[in-house]
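Study both lines:
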Amino acid sequence: MATAMLLLLLGLGTWQVRRLHWKEGVLAQIAHAEAAPAKPLQANPEPYTKVQVTGSLRNDLAASFGADVRDTPAGTVLGTQLIVPLVPDNGETILVDRGWVPNLQSTMPLKGDLTVTGYVHPGDMPGLFSATDSPATREFYTLNPAAIGAALGLHNVAPFILVALGPTPPDGYPDPAKHLPRPPNNHLSYAITWYGLAAALVVIFVVWARKALTA
């Protein structure tokens, strides 16, 4: 039994080491893509690709996504992500997550065309415990482009969200994302845990064996 448990623990530790190397490769690819210049937005872009697109903002159809508490100069404030439709020359509407705002009233509408640099976020589907969207008040809790577009009365909506990247503007809002999303990398701590348990098992077995032999 001790041998089987030892092999299992060593196997789990080795698996986490392999996962660590794989995750480091993924993070290196994300860092490389983040440092590279944005590419013009093409049809059917790959998820999390850094792209750039120019179009006309529909601030009259601004909506909110989620709820997030942040520390601001005015204190701790509950805010949301500002979702604004962008219409490029090709006519396909793109929903842009322009960044965090305390509320929709705190943003000044932009006029004319705007060039947005960001990354492609694939659309989500509501889960079992997802909060219910409120189309009447344009409050959404699932990044589902089709559902949001339909609630805003839009047609020909791209099947992804463009999450804006950039520095915080002088007036503070909307505050866009600063980098591409990165998956957590806890594999080293997991590997140490499994190998530590294996070492503890060996020590316990040795102590038990000595007592058994001297009994």
